[in-house]
Amino acid sequence: MESRCVCAPLNVCLCVHALLLLSLSHILFVSIETRVQIQESVRGKDVFVIQTVSKDVNTTIMEMLIMVYACRTSCARSITGVLPYFPYSKQCKMRKRGSIVSKLIASMMCKAGLTHLITMDLHQKEIQGFFNIPVDNLRASPFLLQYIQEEIPDYRNAVIVAKSPSSAKRAQSFAERLRLGIAVIHGEAQDAESDQVDGRHSPPTVKTTGAIHPSMEIPLLIPKEKPPITVVGDVGGRIAIIVDDIIDDVDSFVAAAETLKERGAYKIFVMATHGILSSEAPRFIEESAIDEVVVTNTIPHELQKLQCPKIKTVDISMILSEAIRRIHNGESMSYLFRNIGVDD
């Protein structure tokens, strides 16, 4: 039997009066089922379930759902879920015959009995629309901006870099607040001519219309073809700061760092809110041209830091504890969203 408190493993200061900390017994049976037993009354109480995402993300989700449902069936007045990183947030768009998994997770949480959600830097802000309960999407950018100003001595000689056009909006937000320039990496590495598949002797493609009437031929969409890697913006002799929301598979960050090095950047930082850093990410970072990777503690990554000294952590527990305090006391949350525009 393993005893576990819902406020672990994230080190959050809960400065809330009369906040009920649940004492749970978490039992794994032979069939790998999870059982939650609340050891004290929650009837009429405001309950805050703090859950961080571990490597076993599916177990984390089930623990969260069962804890919330246990509180609901025990007549808790309100149940607020605090998920610093919302799992499956990258799967928020339909791709071919796939599914929008983040919508499914949101529906499950609401069905389990969640009445409020606190999270941080959703991969897409539109995910809030998947919930039929209030969602507070907090921002880690003030903490990352403070780190840049205090820990990078020559940050005035820096340029904010978006490693792809899709992250240009985030880079623009950082650049405008720091009064710095912006650069965008566009394109992809091109194969050498000898590495390309020679299709000159392949059979010609046959145009098929299937069941469509010959007079109703649907035009085909021209396939995309990315140009060679180019850097839009001057990074020569500058500090390059790559910003993003999630850093998991670091291949794209390593490739971006090599490109920036070739263009003359003399120091390269990577800053992200959620440091998943799975698999061989620490080793790849250590062997790359990246000088420092800065992430927040929304996801535990102590093991990764032991493997790679380049990984630094910014503590964001203060804003989470303040959000909990304000919700419990019925205070306005607008203070936590100061100077945050619609596009941020």
Automatic annotation (TrEMBL):
Q: Which residues form a coiled coil?
A: none
Q: Which parts pass through the membrane?
A: 12-32
List keywords of the entry alphabetically.
Acetylation, Membrane, Nucleotide biosynthesis, Phosphoprotein, Transmembrane, Transmembrane helix
The Ribose-phosphate pyrophosphokinase N-terminal domain covers 29-113
One cellular component term (GO) for this entry is: ribose phosphate diphosphokinase complex
Domain of life, per UniProt, equals Eukaryota
InterPro entries, from UniProt? Answer: Pribosyltran_N, PRTase-like, PRTase_dom, Rib-P_diPkinase
Is Transmembrane a UniProt keyword of this protein? Answer: yes
What are the recorded GO MF terms, alphabetically? ATP binding; magnesium ion binding; ribose phosphate diphosphokinase activity
Matches recorded under SMART domains: Pribosyltran_N
Q: SUPFAM superfamilies, per this entry?
A: PRTase-like
Which biological process annotations from GO are given for this protein? 5-phosphoribose 1-diphosphate biosynthetic process; purine nucleotide biosynthetic process
- Supply the CDD domains for this chain: PRTases_typeI
Mind telling me which NCBIfam families this protein's record contains? ribP_PPkin (TIGR01251)
The record, for PANTHER family, names: PHOSPHORIBOSYL PYROPHOSPHATE SYNTHASE-ASSOCIATED PROTEIN 2, RIBOSE-PHOSPHATE DIPHOSPHOKINASE FAMILY MEMBER
Recorded family membership: Belongs to the ribose-phosphate pyrophosphokinase family.
What's this protein's function? Answer: Seems to play a negative regulatory role in 5-phosphoribose 1-diphosphate synthesis.
**Subunit annotation:** Binds to PRPS1 and PRPS2.
This protein is called Phosphoribosyl pyrophosphate synthase-associated protein 2
